[in-house]
Amino acid sequence: MTAEIITIGDEILIGQIIDSNSAWISEQLNLIGVNVRQKSSVGDDKNHIINALDEASKRAQLIFITGGLGPTKDDITKSTLCEYFNTKLVFNEDIYKDVEGFFVIRKLPMLESNRMQAEVSENCEVIRNFKGTAPGMWFEKNGVQYISMPGVPFEMKAMMEDSILPLIKLRFKLPFILHRTILTHGLGESFLAQRIEEWENNLPNNLRLAYLPSPEHVRLRMSIYGDDEIQLQKALDEQEAKLKTYLSKEIYGFEKQTLEEVVGNLLKVNKATVSTAESCTGGNISHLLTSVSGSSEYYKGSVIAYSNEVKTNVLQVKLNDIESHGVVSEEVVIQMAEGVRKLMQTDYAIATSGIAGPNGGTNEKPVGTTWIAIAGKKKTWTKKFVYANDRNINIQRASYSALDSLRRILLDYI
Predict the structure, then answer these.
(1) Are 301 and 346 members of one domain?
(2) Structural domain containing residue 103
(3) To 5 degrees, how large is the angle CA 110–CA 112–CA 116?
């Protein structure tokens, strides 16, 4: 079954509010096996709304409409829908009681404009709103279902969860759709695609693969459709096992796991502690580590060594190495890592030094050049990374590269 989402409101088109409704509705529909084919936003204009409905009806079997059901003059969705479905508004006593109760509970006066909220289309199926005053309306025309809901997110979500989604599952035979998200770090999207090309080319016809890159990772999302949930689950398990043979070191987690959670769990399993000495990342690695509940068990502290004085006085970095090799160098970052490890008395220490940008780059060391070091009991590991992004993204990439490097060391991958 296919669906389309139309959001109504001038405030969306001028950027005054962000359309979060479409994303949430899409997610919920996907979970029950409904494919969203398109989303669109239109202003508070009757002709634009009607045109959007006409176009959507050519592509989808379910059309979801949010917005424009309020009590003010700019809310024209109800009257427009009446024109579109060749009907009229009628007063609904049950909805009026809902609206009246809404104001009684809050001890607020009920205005005439609020009373008008109880007017609904004569030929629609009314969907009650238990979180607000604007009811939803369900229409059918030429085999296409049209579902109009308020634009207020918490009202729309309650209406979807309590009434609309259960009705869709009851009235239509829907396939199962299962997802599996694999989290990877260390390979960019194109290099990842090259690595797993053979595996991807042999995927079953009913399984789709999506690449979802970000500064933190590249997510690989497998989506599979069918009528037998058990067989679909088995197919996902089989493909995941095959994928691991191609990405044995790059896969760090699944679904909504974070890299900082995975690293924290590995530290706990190894009964190990870590500290950080950050220059270019400015405390972001320590922020990520401490964002995990219980991180005090393994994380001891940080030195944000942004100036040379802190590097030399606190971390005992040799001034002549800074002068000879530069702050952004292997020699300096090694001493930063070993210095903070000794200072904090931890099993491991992470250090970063780089040129986040937008200024400070040279031909030898362009913006994005970053050295990362991980100091341990037996050895200190280092690597140079070069990121070609803006300042904030460079900081994010360096932070996650540092965490992933520690993950690999804890797993004896490097």
Answers:
(1) yes
(2) 2-171
(3) 105
